[in-house]
Design a protein that fits this description.
It is a single chain. With 648 residues, the chain is an alpha/beta fold. The chain folds into three domains: 20-32 and 536-647, Golgi alpha-mannosidase II (Immunoglobulin-like, Sandwich); 40-57 and 206-530, TIM Barrel, CATH 3.20.20.80; 74-202, Jelly Rolls (Sandwich). 18% of the residues lie in helices and 33% in strands. The chain has ten helices and 34 strands. Helix 6 links the parallel strand 18 and strand 19. Helix 4 (323-337) packs across helix 5, helix 6 (372-387) runs parallel beside helix 7 (404-416) and helix 9 (467-482) runs parallel beside helix 10. The longest helix is centred in the middle third of the chain and has 16 residues, at 372-387. The model is unreliable at 1-17 (pLDDT under 50). The protein binds alpha-L-arabinofuranose. Alpha-L-arabinofuranose (AHR) binds next to loops.
Length: 648
């Protein structure tokens, strides 16, 4: 009796807080919801030169001369003409004929790359091209790397003999580093040569694959530990018109014969037009699936639902003509998962991957709205369910976080019975802070949420990728995690931006032809992605979730694989906050001290640059005293704490 009395007095004393100290309690004994392994992922779109000129490591722009003006990206000199008789590739029929009459002037052409070609001294680059000598007289090509000053210190000669189209290859070691180099190909002997699909890749791509991806950019994705990988966009799947929608079947098979497509982001912003923005589709659906596998993320392809971008041409495929679109979706599932004896499974095997990719989800339509969308989505959903009942269908709630379109679409998604609903919100930091509670009141029985595109837009700073934006995303994401029974996927957008060729900001990762820069938002995503946990734990302050009181936001999870408790705590206030965490449901002495990974900046407007990343995660140890953790949270900070529960 006396013992019990002392224990309650002790507990009472502990519950009395020092003035100004916040007390949070985490109940470690009762997980309240599962966290999907797919929870934190990435969204990829060829915007901001994200694919061609970015992730896709091809250094030559318009390598097949298929741009509407076939010399875009090229500077021809001497006798160079574009032709298409007896082409090498039927779906990319253009090639150039170079004639050298033996005089002093030579003939050839330079490629400017994507705002230059990025070359690093000592690195090797693989040049390939398809050539033909129409008059059968052997010729010599000179392949040259030209620096920004116009000097061409590296020349490699290739002799061409024989008849018919043939592939030539040469590996060039760059003698210089330059972000704005050029590739020159010239006919150095008298004669005539036809040449097509002129390509230059770094030899060191991700996993050293030919037709590969930029290793530094894939590494940045890998380091996020993403659970899901959505591709190929965004609005790009819809196209400016139906004719230019993303058609996955054009993006598979031999890379040389994938037909060029206009990029949806070429003229979108009238003050920022990119007339030279096209999709080579060299990074196509096979490569996307392979990338998903490489980075350990579930693939989530999204396809056109038969509506072109409703902001642009707003074309609608009549319901009675929707079959080919639906067939594209069914065939895609076969391409990803089908046996090698099926038509599309065989193509996957021929491309090098006989094993299925294990596709589990497919998105139909992007930011669509109005009755035309559910009408079409329903047809797709029924067809997919009939043939592939295990595949989850992702529908859309339109382009914004609320309003008429959103309010109309959510009940429609429930009526159709899609598995997940894609929500998009590009909003101000205040919205993100205020919406940490957004999902607390969502219907637990309806479709799950895919927070498919979101980013905090700090308009006051020209939508800079600053720490304030990142902090507000971190605060908002505590609400995603707390509601992991409703929210199953979340992907920041857009992913990439070329510093010299972007249309949209902010973006998660910036790069130029040689460098990569991770934004503060990137590190927030990484801290969630690396520490997702498997189960939500109840975390409360004054009997309620921590959703902004005194600038504090917090969530707790259990990692069932490692036996750790994971806390994510944001202090959005410009002052220190003292916090004590009580761990309930723990027997004394079972929690072991651990570590904290944190981001902090005294000035919330701080940004990272290509020259210097200022906001980067740092680590420090944390001490658990008995079953309490005392924290002095720095102003403007976000921390992830991992504490081991000692198993007896
Ligand atoms: O992420 C950029 C664009 O934003 C996406 O393409 C589109 O879905 C949204 O409007």
């Amino acid at each position: 009796m006396r013992k019990k009395g002392l224990a309650s007095i002790f507990a009472l004393l502990l519950a009395v807080t020092v003035q100004g100290q916040h007390v949070m309690s985490v109940d470690v004994s009762k997980p309240v919801a599962r966290i999907q392994p797919t929870m934190y992922g990435i969204f990829f779109e060829d915007i901001n030169f994200g694919a061609d000129g970015g992730l896709y490591a091809e250094l030559v722009k318009n390598r097949s001369f298929e741009f509407p003006q076939p010399f875009v990206g090229w500077t021809p000199f001497g006798n160079v003409t574009v032709r298409d008789e007896a082409p090498c590739f039927d779906r990319n029929p253009h090639y150039v004929r170079i004639v050298n009459d033996g005089g002093l002037l030579r003939a050839g052409l330079d490629n400017e790359g994507y705002r230059g070609i990025g070359l690093k001294q000592g690195e090797e680059y693989r040049f390939t091209a398809y050539v033909r000598i129409p008059d059968a007289a052997p010729v010599k090509l000179s392949v040259e790397l030209v620096n920004a000053g116009g000097e061409n210190p590296l020349k490699k000669e290739i002799e061409v003999r024989g008849s018919g189209w043939q592939k030539v290859t040469a590996v060039l070691q760059s003698p210089f580093t330059d972000a704005h180099a050029r590739l020159r190909v010239l006919l150095s002997t008298a004669g005539t040569v036809d040449i097509d699909h002129i390509s230059l890749f770094p030899v060191k791509t991700w996993k050293n694959r030919e037709n590969g991806l930029r290793a530094d950019l894939v590494q940045a994705l890998y380091d996020l530990n993403p659970g899901v990988f959505r591709f190929p966009g965004g609005c790009i799947i819809e196209g400016n018109s139906l004719a230019t929608r993303y058609q996955w079947k054009n993006s598979v098979g031999p890379v040389e014969n994938r037909p060029l497509n206009e990029n949806r982001w070429n003229y979108t912003f009238k003050h920022k037009a990119f007339p030279d923005y096209f999709q080579s589709l060299g990074l196509g659906f096979y490569e996307y699936f392979l990338l998903s596998e490489d980075i350990g993320a579930e693939p989530l392809p999204v396809l056109s639902c038969g509506l072109s971008c409703q902001y642009e041409s707003n074309e609608v495929v009549p319901l009675e003509q929707l079959d080919p679109y639906v067939q594209d979706a069914l065939d895609l599932i076969e391409f990803a998962n089908g046996a090698v004896t099926t038509e599309w499974g065989r193509l996957r095997a021929d491309m090098g991957h006989p094993e299925p990719f294990g596709l589990k989800m497919i998105g139909i339509g992007n930011e669509q709205w109005g009755e035309v969308y559910p009408e079409r989505l329903e047809v797709f959903t029924e067809a997919i369910r009939a043939r592939y009942p295990d595949i989850k269908v992702v529908g859309s709630s339109g382009p914004s976080a609320g309003g008429d379109k959103f309010d109309y679409l959510w009940p429609e998604m429930k009526r159709i019975g899609v598995d997940l609903v894609d929500e998009h919100y590009y909003m101000a930091p205040d919205w993100f802070f205020a919406n940490a509670t957004r999902y607390d009141s969502y219907d637990r029985k309806g479709p799950k949420v895919f927070a498919g595109e979101y980013a905090s837009h700090d308009h006051a700073t020209g939508k800079a990728n600053n720490f304030l934006a990142a902090l507000s995303e971190a605060a908002f994401m505590t609400g995603l995690e707390r509601n992991a029974d409703v929210v199953h996927l979340a992907t920041y957008a857009p992913l990439f931006a070329h510093a010299d060729a972007w249309q949209w900001n902010p973006d998660l990762i910036w790069f130029d032809n040689l460098r990569v820069m991770r934004t503060p938002s990137y590190y927030v995503q990484q801290m969630y992605g690396m520490n997702p946990g498997t189960d939500v734990l109840s975390l409360q302050m004054e009997g309620a979730p921590v959703t902004g009181k005194d600038g504090l936001y917090a969530t707790a999870a259990l990692d069932g694989n490692t036996g750790e408790v994971i806390l994510k705590i944001v202090n959005a206030a410009g002052k220190r906050n003292d916090v004590r965490i009580d761990f309930d449901g723990l027997r004394r002495g079972k929690l072991v001290s651990g570590s904290c990974t944190y981001l902090q900046a005294d000035d919330p407007k701080t940004v990272n640059t290509l020259e210097q990343e200022v906001v980067v995660p740092r680590m420090r140890p944390v001490q658990v005293a008995d079953r309490f953790l005392h924290l002095e949270l720095q102003p403007y900070s976000f921390g992830v704490y991992r504490l081991q529960i000692r198993q007896k």
